[in-house]
Design goal:
The complex is a heterotrimer of chains A (414), B (235) and C (231). Chain A is of the alpha+beta class and 414 residues long. Chain A is built from 13 helices and eleven strands. The chains are: A alpha+beta (414), B alpha/beta (235), C alpha+beta (231). Chains A and C meet through helix 2, helix 6, strand 6 and helix 9 of A and helix 1, helix 2, strand 4 and strand 5 of C.
């Protein structure tokens, strides 16, 4: 390390060349940092969007339909239930960031249609635990539109209260404070029981299945359906959502008998591959930029080594060992790469908004605000990366310089 | 002529050989040279181009390894040593001056002079640096950069650099090749002074017979052999 | 925007969305239902009427409340609520009008459908498309519903007059029906259903029958006013 100052002084002999080399590294690092920052920002915004999808994974009994469409196909039958113990077991999984139990039941609607023989209809009733459910679907909001003023969620212990999805309220022409009839055949009985419930809230429209769902406390739903210790769906969010995490989670719990793990397939295949594609693209661009810069560094240092052949010979003659020469040249390369890395990070920081505009003008991602997130970690990684690059880029020129034989070096330099 | 015993001999060569291959031809750059260098003497090596002057001086200075013969430098056998070991032999014993000065342009005169200390991992003592510079009459130029100096001054800096590490033998390969007559003479005058004041041994090659004649011993090479060895009667 | 659109599309793939639409009242299966009501039907038209599309829409809407004699629900019986009128043809002959309305019931919506004669405006068929209520059985009873056949809006206005002025008059056909309903007529959904029938007829009068029955309303109001009674 005693050669640090010496190496720096050597670099200042050719300020233009050194400057250009540093600039090349700086640009490459800036590109890499911006792209990585963009990648992180992009990933974050996708995470936010994934977050908005609610559950990322659900666990339910094998063969149980959970989508409204499937339930309709099955005429509201075919729901299968899991014991409470499954929920207690699964909630211990360390990878989950949120979990909520849901009891889905199907309430009959009296035959609708003009002829008395017309088929029966049904309503989807979801028994939920409000706190954890809303944690999962934070966008669910109680509407305060005309007719729905004073709406609120029920407490988990309340009885006789329901919150209606927007479409249900509209379809049944219910307002807050109105009565709502549900006709349910309790488990193990044959006669349906009509229960009069009170509408305490109506949800704002979500554009999802929730619009067509009648919500009530999970205890109440279990009581009405006479399934006091069962549930239909366990919904999850994972701590670090990725295709891999999802697959691992699925594999872990698909082992339970009688259980199916349902990841949101579209999320998995599309969003995750979107992220991964972007990552691959970005990585390849960054890698190319860095390779070009490294070649530039090696070239520039080699040139200076060849130029200084005579000097290196003299240094050897006056007592420098191979390792001394190696260190000097290697330090010079490191210095170029590190200052390039530093300059690149600064460039990326100051140029972030420009880069962002450039990227957005090329590809419209529809997101506002900062897409490029240059975190301290990214900066550290960039600097460490430049150091590593310097280490490798310096190896060959340093080796070349160190292996010069003093006699020949001096003679060549004469 | 100096009459000290063999142990005080700084360089002792017996039957030194160095062959180069050029295609299928073998060039005998040195073909059996015997030479001894003692403290406090200046030896000049004369000879036409290709006579083996530089080869000899490279061997003597341990910058190159002989193909045959024996060589002892500072009391150590040189034959068969690795490059790193040769560095060890050179360090602190041998100092070099070349035709080109090879000063580092970004370092000041003083820093250039101190450069060997960095490689020898010895502490830098500015007082000593200045003392060495005083020897070459450049004390007042310590803070200057090489480009601010004349050719003669630069060569003197190179000499100071060769002396800084308590060198016992100064080896100079055509030290006046890039200098005009006056500066060349000044360099040789300096050499004489160093031999006298510092008990230094100096081996110098030169084309310049007049300058060469200033040495204590004058050795003439031709085709890799010593054809003449004169002791300067004037010294 | 591309990205958000993608998310929305994905979300809708993940969770099927119930069809959005204005809160009207349409037949679940018009072709089948109309064939059931009019076996000889060859074609039908589905026309959507809204007050706001009429030049004097606001006036008509205000009159609806007046002629119905009860407040309109501000959310579900609004100015922009669409009404779907089915006109039923046999060849080129208009053979029937079918129209349904929503009225809020006690525990859910009640959908009251009427099939009427295109010329006379008489009720040809009265049925519920949706009705969930403890009273449903009584209301959906076929014999009870058949009693409405042959009535026009005029009969309801007459009933208003008779009920207030001459309770024993044999000409009050609506009173007969109410009397025959027995126990069921006590409940709130019974009243809502009748309100639905009346609302349905008034809307048909406005949309289809050129307000032919409006004079009966005026006359009832006048007569009752002269007698110092409220309908």
């Amino acid at each position: 390390m005693r050669f640090i100052a010496f190496a720096f002084k050597n670099l200042f002999r050719r300020p233009v060349r050194t400057g250009l080399t540093v600039l090349a590294i700086a640009l490459a690092v800036a590109v890499a940092v911006s792209l990585i920052g963009f990648n992180i920002g992009y990933r974050r915004s996708i995470d936010v969007s994934i977050d908005k999808l609610g559950f990322q994974v659900m666990i339910m009994a094998k063969g149980c339909p959970y989508e409204a469409a499937t339930m309709m196909l099955k005429g509201g039958t075919g729901l299968l239930y899991l014991p409470d113990s499954t929920y207690e077991e699964v909630r211990k999984d360390p990878d989950i960031s949120a979990i909520t139990p849901i009891f889905v039941g199907v309430a009959e609607k009296e035959a609708s249609g003009i002829s008395d023989e017309a088929g029966s209809s049904f309503a989807i009733v979801s028994g939920i635990e409000t706190a954890s459910f809303l944690d999962m679907k934070p966008w669910l909001a109680i509407s305060q539109a005309p007719g729905y003023q004073g709406g609120r969620w029920f407490s988990d212990d309340s009885t006789g209260e329901v919150v209606l999805g927007f479409e249900v309220a509209e379809y049944e022409q219910r307002k807050v404070g109105d009565s709502y009839f549900v006709t349910i055949t309790p488990h193990g009985q044959v006669e349906p029981v009509m229960t009069e419930l009170k509408v305490v809230g109506v949800l704002e429209r979500t554009g999802t299945q929730d619009d067509g769902t009648v919500f009530m406390p999970i205890k109440e739903a279990r009581r009405l359906f006479n399934r006091p210790t069962e549930l239909t769906i366990v919904g999850f969010k994972l701590k670090n959502f990725s295709g891999l995490a999802l697959r691992q989670f699925e594999q872990r719990w698909a082992k339970l008998p009688e259980v199916q793990v349902v990841g949101l397939q579209q999320v998995k295949t599309t969003l995750v591959s979107l992220v991964e594609t972007a990552q691959t693209m970005i990585a390849s661009v960054a890698v190319v930029a860095i390779i070009v810069a490294v070649i530039g560094v090696i070239n520039s240092i080699l040139m200076s080594v060849f130029e200084r052949t005579g000097e290196i010979g003299i240094m050897k003659a006056i007592g420098a060992t191979r390792s001394d020469i190696f260190q000097i040249i290697w330090l010079e390369t490191m210095a170029i790469c590190l200052s390039g890395g530093l300059a690149g990070v600064l460039l990326a920081l100051s140029g972030t908004s420009l880069v962002e505009k450039a990227i957005q003008s090329l590809i419209d991602f529809g997101t506002k605000g900062t897409m490029v997130a240059i975190t301290p970690q990214v900066m550290l990684v960039a600097l460490a990366g430049s150091a590593v690059i310097g280490c490798f880029a310096g190896l060959y020129p340093a080796w070349r310089a160190a292996s010069m034989r003093p006699v020949e070096a001096i003679r060549e330099g004469e | 002529m100096n009459t000290e015993n063999n142990n005080a001999m700084l360089i002792k060569a017996r039957g030194l050989k160095k062959h180069y291959r050029r295609g299928i031809e073998t060039i005998k750059a040195l073909d059996g040279v015997d030479l001894e260098i003692r403290p406090g003497e200046m030896v000049s090596i004369l000879g036409p181009s290709g006579s083996g002057k530089t080869t000899l001086i490279n061997l003597l200075s341990c910058l190159d390894a002989p193909d045959g013969g024996e060589l002892e430098v500072g009391g150590r056998q040189v034959a068969g040593l690795s490059e790193e070991e040769l560095v060890g032999v050179r360090q602190g014993v041998l100092g070099y001056v070349f035709q080109k000065f090879h000063l580092l342009p970004t370092l000041t005169v003083a820093e250039n002079v101190e450069l060997p200390l960095m490689f020898l991992q010895r502490p830098v003592d500015r007082e000593k640096t200045l003392a060495v510079l005083r020897l070459v009459d450049l004390e007042n130029r310590a803070g200057h950069l090489p480009r601010e100096l004349s050719g003669g001054q630069m060569q003197r800096v190179a000499i100071a650099r060769a002396l800084i590490a308590d060198t016992k033998v100064l080896i100079a390969d055509e030290p006046t090749g890039n200098l005009d007559k006056a500066n060349g003479e000044a360099v040789f005058a300096l050499f004489r002074r160093l031999v006298a004041e510092k008990n230094l041994a100096i081996v110098v090659t030169t084309h310049n017979l007049a300058l060469g004649a200033l040495a204590d011993r004058i050795i003439t090479l031709e085709d890799g052999r010593i054809i003449e060895e004169k002791i300067n009667p004037r010294v | 925007m591309k990205y958000m659109v993608l998310i929305i599309i994905l979300a809708s793939l993940v969770v099927p969305v119930t069809v959005w639409g204005a809160i009207g009242c349409t037949l679940n299966n018009p072709a089948q239902d109309l064939k059931f009501l009019y076996p000889e039907v060859t074609s039908f038209k589905e026309e959507v009427r809204e007050f706001r599309h009429f030049p004097d829409g606001q006036k008509l809407y205000d009159e609806l409340k007046l002629r119905l004699g009860s407040d309109l629900d501000p959310v579900y019986e609004a100015f922009d609520t669409p009404y779907t009128v089915y006109t039923v043809f046999k060849g080129s002959d208009l053979i029937g009008i079918v129209h349904g309305v929503n009225v809020p019931g006690r525990g859910g919506v009640i959908q009251v459908f009427l099939a009427t004669d295109p010329k006379s405006g008489e009720i040809v068929n009265f049925f519920f498309q949706r009705l969930e209520s403890p009273e449903a059985k009584a209301l959906k009873n076929r014999d009870f519903r058949r009693r409405f056949n042959g009535l026009t809006l005029a009969d309801f206005y007459k009933h208003d007059y008779f009920a207030a002025a001459e309770p024993e008059n044999k000409g009050d056909r609506v009173r007969e029906i109410l009397a025959s309903a027995g126990e069921g007529r006590q409940g709130p959904d019974f009243a809502s259903s009748l309100r639905g029938v009346r609302k349905n007829l008034i809307l048909l009068d406005m949309f289809i029958y050129n307000r032919r029955f409006e004079p009966f309303f005026q006359r009832t109001a006048e007569l009752l006013k002269n007698k110092g009674k409220q309908p």
